[in-house]
Write a structure and sequence with these properties.
CATH class: Alpha Beta
CATH topology: TIM Barrel
Helix content: 40-55%
Strand content: 5-15%
CATH architecture: Alpha-Beta Barrel
Number of strands: 8
Shape: globular
Order of helices and strands: EHHEHHEHEHHEHEHEHEHH
Structural class: alpha/beta
Length: 276
């Protein structure tokens, strides 16, 4: 069993435009694998031996949260096909700066959606800004899982670091109890931060995902984190369609050869999170 805890797709009506916009923002340095649609993702998962995919949308405007929640419910309830309902585990999203964010978070929890995805750069906030602590307290109190883009983002090359290990640690210190429900994507946001920076997260209780871009998989710090972090604190994630899934499966296996560790990383840790 393999659960990819970090994937993306877009509604058919906007997928082409959304992918083109992101590729442009990334200065054409990255090309996605596929066209960004749900159908393409399902085919890729089947081809690469991925059993379940956690879908991680991001609301860049407050009103998008409602649309994303409706889509999540439609996928879960089979309205977009039996295969999608079987394979996709949809998350929702909300904007921390939205005055109605707590109402929207409660709607997500009441709908039975397991959690939310956030992206500080696209949503315009810092993880260590006290103004967002009430938002994250509400996430914790509702029992939602939150997966957050962490570390440098190639689409924002000149921006300040808003979501590295230092900022994550400050947030989790300010919101006690959130750590076990918090997934710091991209190996804990190490990229753009000094070597060893992610280790300050060990005391926070948070998890990290394995979404490491192919071009960075020989990076000594990425390898160190992949090999040294506690097994129970790592979930498999790819950031598909920006990474192919099967090669990243093999990358994880090469650095965590123990079968018990692989089982935990590939599905047991994710199942524990999603059972909350």
């Amino acid at each position: 069993m393999i659960i990819d805890f970090h994937t993306h797709n877009f509604p058919d009506s906007i997928a082409q435009r959304a992918i083109a916009t992101m590729v442009e923002k990334l200065r054409h340095e990255f090309v996605p694998f596929g066209d960004g649609t749900l159908a393409c993702q399902l085919a890729a998962a089947k081809s690469d031996g991925i059993d379940r995919c956690v879908m991680c949308p991001v609301a860049t405007k407050p009103a998008q949260a409602d649309v994303i929640l409706r889509t999540a419910r439609a996928i879960r309830d089979g309205e977009l096909g039996e295969e999608a309902a079987r394979v996709i585990i949809p998350l929702a999203s909300a904007c921390p700066a939205d005055p109605d964010c707590k109402v929207r978070l409660k709607a997500i929890a009441d709908a039975g959606i397991k959690g939310i995805k956030l992206h500080p750069y696209y949503q315009g906030f810092r993880l260590d800004d006290p103004a967002v602590f009430p938002f994250f307290s509400a996430v914790r109190d509702l029992g939602l899982v939150v997966i957050v883009h962490c570390g440098y983002d190639h689409g924002f090359p000149d921006g300040p670091m808003t979501c590295g290990p230092r900022e994550i640690a400050r947030l989790l210190s300010a919101v006690p109890g959130l750590g076990p429900r918090f997934v710091a994507a991209h190996l804990g946001g190490h990229l753009g931060n000094p070597p060893g920076a992610t280790d300050r997260l060990l005391e926070t209780g948070c998890l990290i995902d394995t979404a490491c871009l192919e071009m960075l998989q020989d990076d000594p710090e990425a390898i160190r984190i992949m090999e040294s972090w506690p097994t129970e604190r790592v979930v498999f994630g790819t950031d598909y369609p920006w990474n192919r899934q099967r090669p990243l499966v093999e990358w994880v296996k090469s650095h965590r050869p123990d079968p018990a560790a692989q089982e935990a990383i590939f599905h047991l840790n994710a199942e524990r999170l999603l059972a909350r």
